[in-house]
Each structure stands twice: as C-alpha cells, then as structure tokens.
C-alpha cells in the first residue's frame, strides 16, 4: 500500500473518530453517564461599566447553562459567584444553594455593579473569602477540586499577576475567559497551565454560550473511555476518574501521551511552518494559530535524531522565528511558538515560499542532508505576489508541501501550494476557532520507505521465526521418514 494512500485512510479515520467523539459525549451527558468530580467552583464575573446590561444578561445565561451540566450537591459540586467592578460582592456563597434550581434562580437575580475593573481585588477576595470554609468551601483534599472561572472584557485597573499566582499556589485552578477588547496578556497571567486549556477568547458576549460545552466536559468524569471523553488516538484504558492511552501492536506511544506512531528506524524529518502574520488575521486569531501549531507539534517525534522543526512568519516581510534544530524537545519548541510576536502587515506568500527554499531548508539554517523536507504553509487570504513558481520549485526539489487555509484563503492558491495528491495535502476551514479540527486531520507520514518501519520489521521477524520453526519440523519429519525406510528395508 502506498504511503500516501495510508495517509488518506488515516485522515478519513480521524474525521470519523471526531464525529464519534462528539456523538458519544452528547449521549453521555444526556443519559447521565457523565458525573462531575467533587468541586468547589467559584465564578468571578466582571460587571464593570464597559459591560452593557444586555451583555451581563448573556453572562448570566452562560453561568446558568454551565451549572445545569454539573452534578450539584453538598457532597459533589458546590457553586459560588463573585461579582466585581471597582468593588467586590459575594453574590452566591458555596454554602448557600445545594440544588441547580436554587443556584440558577440566584444567578438570574444578580445585578451589574457598573463601575471600574479591579480584577486583582476580585481574585484576592475569592482567595480570602469565597474559597474559605466559613463560606462553604471544603477542607483542602486531593479528592476535591477548587476551580475559579473568571469572565472579563477589559484591562484591569490593578495588578493580577501576583495575586493570581497566590491563588494557584493555594490549589485553585483558574480558567480565564476574555471577551471583545480584553487584554490577552492579563488572561495569561491569571490562568493556570496549560494556557491552551485554561484561556478562552470570544469576540462578543453574544457568543459566550458556545463555551458551555467545554466546561461541561472539563468537569465531567466517569468511565471516560466508554463515554468517549478522551483524546487517545488508538487504545484507551480507564482509571478511576481518568484514563491512559496506549497503542496497538506495531505502534509506539508518542511524547504527548495520546498519539501513536509506526516509528521508523530512519524517520528523521525537517519540518518548517510558514505562517501568515498579515493584518487581516487579527491578534486574537493569531493566538489561535499558535495553539494550532503546537497541536501539530504534539503529534511529532521531536528530538535530536528524529524530527526538527523551524518556524517562519511572513507578511510584507519574512522572518525566521527559529531555525531547524534550535529546539529539540517539545517543551522548548512550544514555548518558542507561544513567544512569537504578530507582524501585522501585508500577505506576500510567494516571497515566503522562496525564503523557505533558499533559507529555511539551507544547511546554514540547520537542514540535514538526505532528510525528508516538509513545509506546512498557513494563510488566511489572497497573496499579494505571485506564488506559482515558488510553489512548483519546492515540490520539484522534493519538499512535501501541506497548505492550510482559513477564512478568506484562496482555494486555487492552496491547491497550487499542496503536494500531490492534493486532497491529502490541502485543508481549509472558514473559522479560526475550528482550526483544531485540521490539526487532528493533518498527520505527517514520516515512513516514506515502508521497509524502514519498525512495525514491518517486527512482522518480518515473526515470519522468519515461524519459517525456522517449520524448517525444524520438516527436518524432524525427514529424519523419521529415513528411519522408517531403513526399518522397512
């Protein structure tokens, strides 16, 4: 079977897997298979003057919908709500309401404070008061989670970094939700690690409800393998309140703990991301692009001897963010991606492709001789220069090219960049927020020569062992026949 055809089958399988996951998760939530881990949960909601009354109503609807998905009770999940602006008000204590109906009713009665934005003060209040045993919080225990969900739409008028660190050090897991013109750096200073899981952004309060599903799933524990609430690529084994991933025979579990690879004995590859940083993307979407890059990195076998990754950002100019081989472990590589600054100018994709070939894949920039070269090009719009010659040259020189487009990306340009067969190397989505679906589908096949795959080597060894055993049996039978012939004679 040709490697490209194997990749095609894998992509189809992943699409089906995601659909199955969504279906199973919805079914689990509906049938009650999903139960929430015992949690003390406090919402910290911004009601400063920048939040209009109609928008504050949408925040309350969001809170109510998250509460509806929880297993509320004195011995399961307790919920509190802290309302803040220039001052802080404890609207709902963890000890006050023990049923969903009572909680939702209390949430609907909350009124906005409509003054400044003292987010640091609100976090300090939650740490000192809302999460105190006097207000209904349970004694610290590894069996009980403490979680704060902060919703804000602006830049705080006080310091949040230090107080958020104190809250996290006290065992509070912080999720930060930003709306509209929020300061993204502030969200990152507040949120727990990993930031990919704990920082969310929405353009307006009108779409904040779409985060409901995320938080329902975040608090959901049970037999996670049965409910489908896992991200194991092949094998899922349930443990109490959690799960472990594994792989079928012939595959190995990768560093991310969930992906599987048919590891090749000579599977060294040089991968260069060519990322559009033009002004049409916007800063909040550029953060999503960085998350998307790191989702792909998670699936790679990054090391000194295996996969090397380089990153180029382009707009009107082209800039090497880091060359091939500079970061040879996933943590350093992902940290470098997160630190990338947004360029915010034009869209010179043709220039970027030429730069990739002439500079990024040069020996002086860390490219290794005789190693498969892979280019992953991301863009959200039409190129302002000619791309055909540069794209053709890259493919003619043996670079396997993947083209990924979002929003206003031009299909004909993406197909011109992508390697053959185009259907396996070209991806498009209309919305930045669904880019994670592409990261799940895009699987870089590094076993160019099937004879180098460890899975095939294992199979060959099994065949050889079976043949040796068969030869021994035949030799034994031959000896017996010879003895019988002597007796007959």
What is the gist of this entry?
The chain is of the alpha/beta class. The chain is 39% helix and 20% strand.
Describe the protein in words.
Keywords: Coiled coil, Disulfide bond, EGF-like domain, Glycoprotein, Repeat, Secreted, Signal. It is a single chain. The protein has helices at 3-31, 53-68, 100-108, 119-130, 161-169, 184-190, 195-198, 212-218, 224-227, 283-298, 330-338, 349-360, 388-396, 411-417, 435-441, 454-488; strands spanning 35-36, 39-46, 77-84, 88-92, 145-152, 172-179, 199-202, 220-221, 235-239, 242-246, 252-253, 260-261, 269-276, 307-314, 318-322, 372-379, 400-406, 426-429. By secondary structure, it is of the alpha/beta class. It folds into three domains: 35-221, von Willebrand factor, type A domain (Rossmann fold); 225-263, Laminin; 268-441, von Willebrand factor, type A domain (Rossmann fold, 3-Layer(aba) Sandwich). Helix 13 (388-396) links the parallel strand 16 and strand 17 (400-406). The longest helix is centred in the last third of the chain and has 35 residues, at 454-488. The model is unreliable at 1-33 and 446-459 (pLDDT under 50).
